[in-house]
Amino acid sequence: MKIVRHRLHLHDNDPCEYRKSPCHGGKMTPRLLVIHFTAGASAESSINWFLNPQAKASAHLVIDRNGHITQMVPFDTVAWHAGASRWNDLSGLNHHSIGIELDNAGRLQPHGDQWRSWFGRDYHDDEVLVARHKHETEPSGWQLYTREQIETTLEVAQCLFARYGLEDIVGHEDIAPGRKSDPGPAFPMGALRARLLGRQEDSLPVMRTTTGLNIRSGPGVRHPLLPSGPLPQGVKLEVIDQDGDWRRVSVLEAVNGLSDLEGWVHGRYLEPVEA
Fold first, then answer.
1. Contact of 43 with 62, CB cutoff 8 Å
2. What pLDDT does 192 receive?
């Protein structure tokens, strides 16, 4: 990927799909990258909303669940994605940041033996992470992101950081706490930040198990269980890699007398540990 005249170009040097939103401001110099979820039914429905002048909302990019990218505002132009917001010495983050929207239903509510979005679509357990948001006290259901979305987001972010010298990557929840909850606990923000900013191992995201949890030699149930046995509920660990819904972890506590334990667990049964 590369950026030409503040437009994203893909590996074949062609610009990505561009659908210009009328909801934008003037020129700006970006300092941050802000990640959002759309909380919508599809990428197309969110794009159509950003094309509506009455929406008074937009983003620089929308990334579909299959990794397809649509650009809607040039990167040197204010998009209306942040609203009332603050980060360190900056306020009004629309004027200082690039916004990426990921197609994701966001928070889900229990509905029988499934989960339901605010717009009435049902989701199976294997599409959902049950976790407590870092600004909340009770767990909720959250739609998982796809591997394609995470990989595309990282690649785009690396391109943006290199081109604009961005200072950090944050969530909407970080710049508008209490008002916004996206991208939520299902998004591996700590791992992406570590990759983008070259953080050392002590900055890797720390999680804890929400239940007794099998740990395996690889990402998936086809891989054998580790001889340590299951991880107890509440064990702290660092996430060091991701493969779809699975997380490669380094366990920070001894389990059944074993230390320096490393393996793969399903990300649905992890929740963030506050710093």
1. yes
2. 87
pLDDT in tens, 207-249: 999 999 999 888 888 888 888 889 999 999 988 877 778 888 8
Listed residue (60, 49, 145, 61) closest to 104, CA to CA: 145
Q: What are the beta bridge partners of residue 71?
A: 18, 61
Q: What is residue 97's predicted lDDT score, i.e. its pLDDT?
A: 98
| Model confidence pLDDT, tens digit, residues 114-167 | 999 999 999 998 899 888 888 888 889 999 999 899 999 999 999 999 999 999
Instruction: For residue 133, tell me if it sits in a domain.
Output: no
pTM here?
A: 0.76
What CATH number does the domain containing 220 carry? 2.30.30.40
Domain with 69, as residue range(s), is 2-105+144-199
Average pLDDT of 182-186?
A: 92
Task: Indicate if 256 and 180 belong to the same structural domain.
Answer: no
Going by the DSSP 8-state scheme, the letter that residue 46 receives in this structure is: H
* Last residue in a domain, options 199, 216, 243: 199
3-state secondary structure of 156: helix
Q: Which secondary structure element, helix H or strand E, spans residue 62, and what is its range?
A: strand 61-63
160 & 264 share domain: no
Give the whole-angstrom CA distance, residue 77 versus residue 60.
Answer: 9
Residues 167 and 38 reside in one and the same domain:
yes
Q: Report the half-sphere exposure of 127 (CA within 13 A, side-chain side).
A: 18
40 in a domain, yes or no? yes
pLDDT over 70 at 274, yes or no:
no
